[in-house]
Amino acid sequence: MRSLKRKIAAAALVAGTVLGTVAIPGTAFAGTKNVQLRICSGSNETVKFYFVGENQFGDWVGSRFWEIAPKGCTTAEGYWWVAGRSVEFHHRKPSTGWRWEPRLISANDTSDGATYDLWIG
Known about the structure:
By secondary structure, this protein is of the alpha+beta class.
């Protein structure tokens, strides 16, 4: 009887873990801090951008493209990046063309699941 209860409890725990992970896609689960990035621009031009870096699963990936309206902000939703590491920030303004730069995501002033702000002129 005791063995059967243990097996049922273990099965319930596994099922809850699996269903919990499936029920919340896109949430960072690693032991490290994982953040979404929001880019804010002080430019009078529309900025197109994407990121390349290590995601919450430890995979090196590129994101989709986003646009920032002049003097606006855009959150790169649906992508999670490891805090304490750098990402490649690729961006284009009509007046300058494509450029990229490494951007450090500080782990000291953020929490897991937060949105971290980056700025571009």
